[in-house]
Every structure is written in C-alpha cells, then in structure tokens.
Amino acid sequence: MEIKVEKSLRVKREVLEISSELIFLMGKFLRERGFIEILPVIISPITDPLNHSVFDAEIKYYDGSYSLTKSMIFHKQLAMRIHPRIFSFSPNIRLETEEKKSTGRHLIEFTQLDLEMREATREDIMALVEEMIVYTFEELGRKLGDLIAKMNPHFSIPKVPFKKVRYLEALKEYGKDFENILSEKATEPFWLIDIPIDEREFYDKLDKNGKTLLDMDLMYPYGFNEASSGGEREYEYDRIVKRMEYKGNDFSSMRWYLEEVKKGIPPSAGCGIGIERLTRFVCNLSHVEEARLFPKVPGELSL
Ligand code: AMP
Ligand code: MG
Fold it and tell me: Which ligand is nearest the CA of 112, by number?
C-alpha cells in the first residue's frame, strides 16, 4: 500500500480553527452544566462490539490482549459510579472496510465527544444536545461567522426543539434509503428515534414494547446524514445478559464488563458526537477527511 504523505496535510487552516473552537465551546458548555472532562481510554480488554463488522484492532500483551477503543460506552457507564456527568473527547479506532470511503463520513480514526449523564432519560440528552448545538453555533458565528459564511451558505442557528422522526415510520414512508432521503430534504437537524432492536448494540435500552430502543440518532440536514448516536442504557445484569444472548455477543471477551455490572452500575443516558463530522457539516466539506489533520481514510494508509 502506498503511503500518501501529502494528502494528510491538505486540511485548510480555517477548518482547523473552526474545529478547535467547536471543541472549546462544547467543553465550555458542558462544564457550565456540571459535567467534568475525563481522559479517554485508548486500550482496554473490553470495547464496543458495534453493530457492523470491522477489521480487528488488537494488541497482544503478555498472555492477554487489548482492544483499541471503538467507543467508550462501557467505560462511560462505569464512570457513572464516580461522577454523575462526564464527557471525553475520545479517539476511536474502527478499521472500516474500504467501501466506507465513499460515504464521505467515515474515517478509521476519529474522535467522539462522548458524554453520559446518570439517571437521565433520552429526552434529557436530546434537550441537552440541542442546547449545546445552539450555544456552540451562536458563539461560533459571533467569533468566526465571516470565515464560515465563505465556506457554508447554509450555516444558521437551528430552531429548538428539533423535529423527532420515528425510525420505522420513516422506513415505511421512504424505504431503505430513508436516512439519506430525509437528510437531503431537511434544512434543520432532526432526531431519528425508536430504532429497532436488531439495528443497534445490546446496551441501548429496550422499550417496554420489546421491539424498539429508547435511543436516538441526531441527523444533519443538507445530506450530511448522521451526526450522533445515543440513548438510555441497559444497566441491570439480567437484562444485559438477555440482550447479549439475543445479539449473539461473545461473553468471554465481555467478562470484565459483566463482572462490574454484577456489582452494580447506575442507570444513565448519553451520546457520542463525531467531531470530524460536525466540522464537516459546519464547514460544508465534501468528505470528512478534509475536517482534520492526518485523516485516516478507509482502505488507505496515510500519515
Ligand atoms: P456510533 O455510536 O457508532 O453511531 O458513533 C457515534 C458517532 O461517532 C457517530 O454518530 C458519528 O458522529 C461518529 N462516527 C462513528 N463512526 C465514525 C467513522 N467511521 N468516522 C467518523 N465518525 C464516526
Ligand atoms: Mg450511529
């Protein structure tokens, strides 16, 4: 594989400035609401099993092995024992297959603003994220509005509350490609809610109906598609075991997590917002690789 050195350094200076400001403002917003920033976990014996397959990213260490973090979901849940409101700018490695390159929104190394709140409902998280986006965009516009206007004619402060669209209703109306279709039609961010159990991992909380989850995706307008995923979490041992069995998850690799869950973890809800995707949206970039220095695009090697 060819190493594409020059491409990694093609990001525009203005884009980096906007991205830096987004990170600062969201951190500021969360701190003002009682959240603390925790340092990210990069390697652990447990990581998100994800709902789609990616190449393995494991590091052998003595008789065991570490996984590179695909998301901090389990560590966020465990952190809820210590502090009720946490966030982290968490680097994630997901060795996606090369066809993901053409989506414009996949890197194999990316960063999530990952947040979690004890005793929260999905509605609490949606309201928090809406408020955070409005605050961040307002402040960003004040400071870097001229810069953004040159790149993005659509940049505006979204109106709250964002519209909520039920996953199954959208699927019925628009067919399989509903996410793209709805995102392209939209001029404001919106939520996709009540995602079916088979479409997500075991840790998203199952609704009483037994079919859909108490979770949500935030969707960008103008075809930029998914911004964030999150929801209420399963936290009770028996329910988690049942969901893992349903999903066919590997119990042995998850034993560390299950042992901790057995001791007890608090109920919580949260979400993760991709920083590169947010930067791409604000700057109106065609591919997420233009949103950061040293991007790692699926199917390529680069600096
Ligand atoms: P997930 O929980 O898997 O939906 O990931 C949470 C968020 O991280 C997504 O909504 C995206 O904003 C971001 N994200 C997930 N996968 C990628 C990727 N391969 N490249 C860039 N951002 C991603
Ligand atoms: Mg998602």
Answer: 1
Residue spans of the chain under pLDDT 50 = none
> Which tens digit of pLDDT belongs to each residue from 15-65?
999 999 999 999 999 999 999 999 999 999 999 999 998 998 999 999 999
Q: What is the model's pLDDT at position 114?
A: 98
Which residue from 277, 280, 300 has its CB within 8 A of the most atoms of ligand 1, so it is best to mutate? 277
Cis peptide before 295 (omega within 30 of 0): no
- Residues lying with their CB under 5 A of ligand 2, a single-atom ion: 229
The burial of 251, by beta-carbon neighbours within 10 Å (0-12 exposed, 13-18 middle, 19 or more buried), is given as exposed
Do residues 30 and 116 lie in contact, with contact meaning Cβ atoms separated by under 8 Å?
no
- State the ligand closest to the CA atom of 192: 2
- C-alpha span between 208 and 143 (Å, rounded): 46
Query: Which residue puts its alpha carbon closest to atom 11 of ligand 1?
Result: 274
Domains in the chain, please, with CATH? 7-291 (3.30.930.10)
pLDDT for 9: 76
Give me the pLDDT at residue 1, please: 67
Cβ(138)–Cβ(25) below 8 Å: no
What is the chain's length?
A: 303
- Does residue 218 come out as left (phi exceeding 0), alpha (psi in the -120 to 50 range) or beta? beta
Tokens (6 digits) for 149: 């206007």
> Which pair of structure tokens corresponds to residue 82?
């210590």
Q: Which residues pair with 216 in a beta bridge?
A: 193, 230
| Residue-by-residue DSSP string for 213-236 | BSEEEEEETTTTEEEEEEEEB---
Single out the residue of 197, 186, 199 nearest to residue 225, CA to CA. Answer: 186
Q: How many CA atoms lie within 13 Å of 138's alpha carbon, on the beta-carbon side?
A: 9
Say if ligand 1 is within 6 A of residue 101 CB: no
